[in-house]
Amino acid sequence: MYCNFCGRTMADDCLYCSACGRQLGAKVVRRPLERAREGRKIAGICMGLARHLDVDVTLIRLLTLVAALFTGVGFIAYLIAWIVIPEEPVMMPQHQVVPTHSGPPVT
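and the corresponding structure tokens:
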């Protein structure tokens, strides 16, 4: 068996990689590609892409900046992604929901 993340060979009975600590033999569940609401700088494109690919957001931002400055494709791709990629849904904390006796909960 080998680690899908770092590529090292492991014994068949290992549950976790001794090099990177990731779980072996498990399917990777990726987050959906959505524009982030928290931690974003402009529209949340880079943060959402970093969460989806499970990489550092700084790397995505640097690659986007380099593509924008040197080729101009970065600006166009960012604008298209801003339009196409849906925004992350709003998560309301449970303590803000006020139950009423006469009908559904009021937020």
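(Above: one complete record from the training split.) The chain has two domains: 1-29, 31-89.
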